[in-house]
Design a protein that fits this description.
Layout lengths: L8 H22 L10 H15 L16 H17 L8 H12 L14 E3 L5 E3 L23 H14 L15 H10 L5 E7 L6 H10 L2 E4 L2 E3 L5 E7 L13 H6 L1
Parallel strand pairs: 3-6
Antiparallel strand pairs: 1-2, 4-5
C-alpha cells in the first residue's frame, strides 16, 4: 500500500493494525460475541484494509500537507479506529456490540488516549476528519407534499450512518452486503441512496424470490446493460452501474445445499 498511504504513516498503520487485529480477532473467536453471518478472519481484515485504502488515499487526503492536515497522526488513528469498528464490528449481533465496543476501546486507548466515551458505533467522521456523533450530522428534513407517502424517508442517525458507509464503499468499487432483521428499512435506505446518488451512477434493482433461477439473474443483468462489443456488456458511456439485489437469501436450496443464483453472484 506504499503507493496509497505515505510513510511514516504506513508504518504506523501496519504496526497498530497488526497488534489490534491479533487481539480483537481472538476476542471475536473465543468469547460469547456472536456474528450475524459466519465470517473468515481474512475477510474481516480485507474489509478493514479496504476502508483504510479509501480513507487514506492521496486523492482523498494529503497527509503531507501540514496546512490542510495540522495533526496527521491523529487523523490516521481516527480513520483506523473507524475502519476497525466497521469491519470487525459490523457483523456482530446488535445486543453484543456494546461488549465488542469495550474490548475495542481498551485497545484503541493505548494508541489514541482521547478516544471518546460512549457507544463506538455512534461515531462517524466529520468533514475535518474528526470523530463526530452521527446525531450531529443529521441533514435538515424538508417535506415534499408531492412525494409519495411510502417514498418519504425522514433522516435518522441510522439513515445517515448507513448512507455514509454505502457511499464510502460503493463509490470506490467495493461490494456491500447489508444484513438485518425483516422490516427495519434496509431496502428503503438503499433505494433512497441509489435514487439520490451521483450523476455518474446508474442503478438497477433485482428482487430475489424462492423461484429465482440463474437464468432470471442473468436476464436481469443483461437487460440493464448495453452491448459494447459482441461479447461485452456495460453501463452507458461515462457511467458506473450498481445492481441492488434484494432478499438475496430467498432462492431455494438445490440438492447439495447451494443456492445457484447466489453462487452466480459470487
Amino acid at each position: 500500500m506504499t503507493d496509497i498511504i505515505i510513510d511514516p504513516h504506513l508504518s504506523t498503520v501496519c504496526k497498530v493494525l497488526t497488534e489490534m487485529m491479533r487481539k480483537l480477532l481472538i476476542v471475536l473467536r473465543t468469547t460469547t460475541i456472536k456474528e450475524k453471518v459466519p465470517s473468515q478472519d481474512s475477510n474481516l481484515i480485507s474489509s478493514c484494509l479496504n476502508f483504510l485504502r479509501i480513507f487514506l488515499s492521496r486523492e482523498r487526503i494529503r497527509l503531507d500537507n501540514r496546512d490542510a492536515c495540522p495533526n496527521p497522526e491523529k487523523i490516521v488513528m481516527t480513520y483506523l479506529a473507524f475502519s476497525v469498528i466497521w469491519s470487525l464490528g459490523a457483523n456482530i449481533v446488535d445486543d453484543q456490540r456494546t461488549l465488542f465496543g469495550e474490548y475495542f476501546r481498551n485497545q484503541m486507548k493505548l494508541h489514541m488516549p482521547e478516544f471518546p466515551k460512549g457507544d463506538v458505533f455512534d461515531f462517524g467522521i466529520s468533514k475535518d476528519h474528526q470523530l463526530q456523533s452521527w446525531s450531529e450530522q443529521l441533514p435538515k428534513f424538508e417535506f415534499d407534499p408531492k412525494q409519495n407517502f411510502f417514498e418519504i424517508l425522514v433522516p435518522t442517525t441510522d439513515t445517515v450512518k448507513f448512507k455514509y458507509l454505502l457511499a464510502t464503499l460503493m463509490y470506490n468499487d467495493c461490494n456491500v452486503l447489508m444484513t438485518g432483521e425483516t422490516g427495519v428499512g434496509k431496502s428503503v435506505i438503499i433505494k433512497d441512496f441509489l435514487m439520490k446518488s451521483e450523476e455518474a451512477i446508474v442503478s438497477a434493482f433485482v428482487n430475489f424470490s424462492g423461484k429465482t433461477s440463474c437464468r432470471n439473474l442473468q436476464d436481469a443483468f443483461e437487460g440493464n446493460l448495453e452491448a459494447k462489443r459482441k461479447t461485452l456488456l456495460g453501463p452507458p458511456a461515462g457511467k458506473k452501474m450498481i445492481f441492488f439485489v434484494d432478499d438475496v437469501n430467498m432462492p431455494q436450496l438445490e440438492k447439495y445445499g447451494a443456492q445457484p443464483p447466489c453462487e452466480l453472484l459470487r
